[in-house]
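Appendix B. One record, verbatim.
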Amino acid sequence: MTILFFWWLGLLAFRVCVLNCGCDRGCLLWMNAAVYAITMRFWSSVLNCACSYIKSLPVVAIVDEFGNNLGLKGLDIAVAGRNLKHCKSYISLRAPEHMGSSSFLWNFTKKFITAGLITVTVSDRYATVVPVRGGSMSPTLNPKTGSGMEDISDDYVLVEKFCLGRYKFSRGDVVVFRSPLNHKETHIKRIVALPNEWFDNRDYNDVVKIPYGHIWVEGDNSASSMDSTSFGPIPLGLVQGRVTHVVWPPQRIGAVKNTPPQRLPSPPQGLPSV
């Protein structure tokens, strides 16, 4: 079981490294399958060890010894039940003093490990909560309360990851993604154009086509936003999820609206529509 646990940790660490390297989606799916297979095998081993541990508890041995003293083969519940009062007294006299503390420690460890694994799995596959830094998405996120940047309060948003299964995005969705310039950084921007769409790039006064497997993202506050106008279209493999709700502070709790941009011209003359 210990070997499986360290295998699980190693695969999880390797998966994080793969994410930081911007690997394609297919490799990540294989990594997820390996992690979950070892996770299931690990918990199967945990249950087997737990059963063995329960069988080896002093209480079980004491009750079994009491049954043998009564002339029983093994632990006959029906007969031992008639002598329950004597059995309780016998156990209370013979049970070690440290049994209560070790049992509490074991239960706490099991709950801690279970909670940790559930948290990692849920945040990796289903949903997570992330803070919003800076004012690039103001006023949708982190609205200014004054004139300076110091007056911006951080919003915490709920990010759902079901959309990553088939990359089901729409124009106007607010997404979280890793920076193509520095994979250790994450950004939150709005999708302006989807793959294979024509896009009116106002910064270069030109109409461009978004490559397959890429999206064009911009901040709602373009004056202070590091987005596709700086590093171009981003690969869908860098997207980590879609922002659905603001969950903190309390006065800001609510859904994040999808606001489709009106910047999608027709394709240049002579080219097919997509």
